[in-house]
Design brief:
Layout: H1 2-26, H2 28-37, H3 45-61, H4 65-83, H5 90-111
Length: 112
Amino acid sequence: MRTTLRVAGRILLAQIFIISAIQKIFDYNGMETYMAAYGLAAWLLPFVIALELGGGLMILAGRGMRLAAFVLALFSITAAVIFHLDFANPTQVILLMSDLAFAGGLLVLAST
């Protein structure tokens, strides 16, 4: 049962990053525009895609997952601070909390 739960947890954590990377690939120009609206350079986007896709796949496969989980936790916290700090907007507050919750789960995974 423990092994099944660990695999399910890894799948659930990994899927958000893998799907997000794929969406960024298919809407590359839109994502560049979105990032620019927050003052981020377009040249960062390939690194973000690589981080999300590579890290998500590492967690999914269970190879190098502790490092990937730690790096993705830092990424999630950074993304939360950059994109979701509008406390006047309830949707942004929920997104902030979900990013921080993902980071918490990833830190737990990194520590095991």
